[in-house]
Structures are given as structure tokens and as C-alpha cells.
């Protein structure tokens, strides 16, 4: 019987090489990278939610995306 280890997002570790690359960036460059990742995540949630719920209005979709992005704080 084989055992399977289920990995979670928290198992991921930044490699030393990637950490060095990020350290070499300016704060503005790191902020731009972070914003790009945030925008991608928002777009992904929006598109998958729209595909799952085509009946939602734009306002309903925006509220849903905001709730997902804020982990329910909105």
C-alpha cells in the first residue's frame, strides 16, 4: 500500500535563487510584481465565477470577487 502526502500551499518554499532575484529588485519593482499577481488572481476568480454563474449581474459578480479577494471581509 502506498501512502500519498497531500501538499498544501504552505509547503512551498522560496528557493535561494528566487529570493536573491527578488532582493535585487527595488521596492517599486517588488510592488509591481505583487500587484500583477493580485490582478491575475482577481481576473481568474472573476472569469471562473462568471463561467459558473452566467446569470449573475456585473454587480453581483463584483461583490462575489471582492468577498473572495478579501477572504470574506467585504
Key traits:
74 residues, mainly alpha, 3 helices, 64% helix, 0% strand
What would you note in describing this structure?
With 74 residues, the protein is mainly α. The chain has a domain at 26-74. Helices cover 64% and strands 0% of the residues. Helix 2 packs across helix 3. The longest helix is centred in the middle third of the chain and has 26 residues, at 27-52. The radius of gyration is 18 Å and the shape is extended.
The main pleated sheet reads as: none
* Structural category: mainly alpha
Mean pLDDT: 89
Are there runs of 5+ residues with pLDDT below 50, and where? none
Strand count: 0
Overall helicity? 55-70%
Strand fraction equals under 5%
Which of globular, elongated, flat, extended, rod-shaped describes the shape? Answer: extended
Q: What's the SSE pattern?
A: HHH
- Amino- and carboxy-terminal Cα gap: 46 Å
What is the rounded Rg?
18 Å
What's the number of helices?
3
Please write out the topology:
Elements (H helix, E strand, L loop, with lengths): L15 H9 L2 H26 L5 H12 L5
Helix pairs in contact: 2-3
TL;DR of this structure?
The protein is mainly alpha-helical.
